[in-house]
């Protein structure tokens, strides 16, 4: 059978359509397939620290729910509105969003309108007529700047890398928000601890000052020796020194909290002792695998890993030909009134193709650099997971053992209180020297101070556990969080 030649007219009609199908059908991506690295930590936390099964994950509990204390809620809200570090983190999200928009625009041609007009005079001795000539040229049209046909996915991979960097910055801002919430809560607890210790110390100072007054009177009438008076005065001075030290620590802690708030600290009158049962909730830890979606620093590290993976594809595409299109369409005329007359149509089309033949290994080195950065991102991602696992394990261990210490210290304070009472009775009846009373009262104050410190440390461990588990990151986003573009979901 005789094969008929394909008509040239049909081929001419199909060529533009084939080009459109090729452009619309996407491009080849030279980026390596992404596979999430294996979890570099055990599947469970240390034995005895797993806790009860959680009905609600920590990530679903917003900070307003986890910290029901109204004073603490007000401080956290103030910090979220005014803290400068958080403000910078949110601005970095906007910066990354703009960079993503710039990179995304490179996928599409840039088309602009232009209008030109010119008049020129040529002397007679420079043309064949021997007479001076005045010429005019006017042109109006649409032009397309150099647009790269992304056959090898270089532009798309750069766009994907910018997208992942944007998502990483958004996750980093959520990590900064969670960190700020935890820092404010911990700073508030430290301030309340110092208030409680100061209240205990002031009570002790007042009690010992009264004792000193009584002993001074007894010494004046010759009922006691000067040694007894000196011992009582020493005990009073020690309490005063502790009070001054705590006052300084409390002032410094208030200044640190003001820095976190980004605003003056204005605390209402509160009881000196913090109610441990109402300041925050308690949490079970869940499983280590949940950290991958709940910890914003891990989410940010994975987005950076995806970005480095996309950069490899862009670097590989540099080995293949680059095709760009430039063109314009419009009208041109020597007379202004003939600019839109029949036959004034003008156009130009200038495709170009380029392929570097020798670059002294630059492109190979660029690929090696992208792969090395990808390997660094893998190591950073794995280290972030290991750090998160350690944070949770440390918080669980602290919560367990500090609770036991609190129980022991409460029993110790009760025992020391009884010891001090009995020592005072023995001294009053002349059965022992005042040195025994001195030691008992000193040990009682030390035990009370240690109990207040350990109770605060136990509460701080629960704050750290909430932050380590990505607390509140899956709850409704705060108002100041940046919106994610509709096409900015990770792939």
From TrEMBL:
Recorded hits in Pfam families, A to Z, give: OEP
GO cellular component terms, semicolon-separated: plasma membrane
Subcellular location(s) of the protein:
Cell membrane
Topology in the lipid bilayer = Lipid-anchor
Top-level taxon of origin: Bacteria
Q: Name one GO molecular function term.
A: efflux transmembrane transporter activity
Task: Quote the InterPro entries the UniProt record gives.
Answer: MdtP/NodT-like, OMP_efflux
| Keyword annotations of the record | Lipoprotein, Membrane, Palmitate, Transmembrane, Transmembrane beta strand
Q: Which family does it belong to?
A: Belongs to the outer membrane factor (OMF) (TC 1.B.17) family.
Q: What is this protein called?
A: Efflux transporter outer membrane subunit
Instruction: Give the organism the record lists.
Output: Achromobacter veterisilvae
